[in-house]
Amino acid sequence: MKILHIDCSPRPDSHSRKLSAAIVAQLLDMAPDARVTRRDLGREPIPHPDMDYASALSSPKTLAHDQMDRATRLSETLIQEVEAADILVIGTPINNFTVPSVLKAWIDQILRMGRTIGTTPSGEKMGLLDDKPVYIGIAAGGVFTGDRAKQPDFLIPYLTAALGCVGLSSLQFFPLQATVFLSEEQLEEGRAALIASMAT
Length: 200
Hints:
Largest sheet: 5 strands, parallel
Oligomer: single chain
Distance between the termini: 13 Å
Number of domains: 1
Low-confidence stretches: none
Order of helices and strands: EHEHHHHEHEEEHEH
CATH topology: Rossmann fold
CATH architecture: 3-Layer(aba) Sandwich
């Protein structure tokens, strides 16, 4: 089994990192021979799409042009990492109601018409990647989901739509909420409860 482990927080001891690490540890307990590939967007952010990438994807004519290989090199690397994995684990904070910009940059590189997104005969979008489990650990200082939510949730609906667009629909979300109000003991208990709820 191959696990692609993605972290998004710039903080080395962040709650989202601890949560994603706990998810990976649980998976390794069940499959000790699994191999883990790391993509640390928080410590090594990838660039946002540039002019060449945007131009290469702008029309069928440019999609077939030689510049496509150069402009989409990073995109191809990231897509192949996803394709090679059997499971994805993503650790992310909520930044201003939604995903951090580093995760958005990654998404913008893997959502690519003709490569990870196709169209049906009727013109509807369809994902071209094989579905696989995606475990998403979310850390939030406030409460964004559930009966006690005090802020809107744009992260879960966005990731559901974006990843579903390429064919990844088997998503499990693990929200660790109100982190700024909890003691370390409470946070540990919260992480443990989330890990215990993992469906494999």
